[in-house]
Amino acid sequence: MKIHNFSAGPCILPQEVFEKSSQAVLNFNNDGLSILEISHRSKAFVDVMENARALALELLGLEGKGYKALFLQGGASTQFLMAAMNLMEKKAAYLNTGTWSDNAIKEAKIYGEVAEVASSKEANYNYIPKGYKVPKDCDYFHCTSNNTIFGTQIKDFPKLDMPMVCDMSSDIFSRSLDFSKFDLIYAGAQKNMGPAGTTLVVVKEEILGKVTRQIPSMMDYQTHISKGSMFNTPPVFAVYVTMLTLQWLKDLGGIAAIEKENEKKAQLIYSEIDLNPLFKGFAEKADRSIMNATFTLENDNLKDTFETMVKEANINGINGHRSVGGYRASMYNAMPLNSVGILVDVMSELERKA
Amino acid sequence: MKIHNFSAGPCILPQEVFEKSSQAVLNFNNDGLSILEISHRSKAFVDVMENARALALELLGLEGKGYKALFLQGGASTQFLMAAMNLMEKKAAYLNTGTWSDNAIKEAKIYGEVAEVASSKEANYNYIPKGYKVPKDCDYFHCTSNNTIFGTQIKDFPKLDMPMVCDMSSDIFSRSLDFSKFDLIYAGAQKNMGPAGTTLVVVKEEILGKVTRQIPSMMDYQTHISKGSMFNTPPVFAVYVTMLTLQWLKDLGGIAAIEKENEKKAQLIYSEIDLNPLFKGFAEKADRSIMNATFTLENDNLKDTFETMVKEANINGINGHRSVGGYRASMYNAMPLNSVGILVDVMSELERKA
Question: Which residues in this protein are found as N6-(pyridoxal phosphate)lysine (chains A, B) (predicted)?
Answer without folding.
Answer: 191
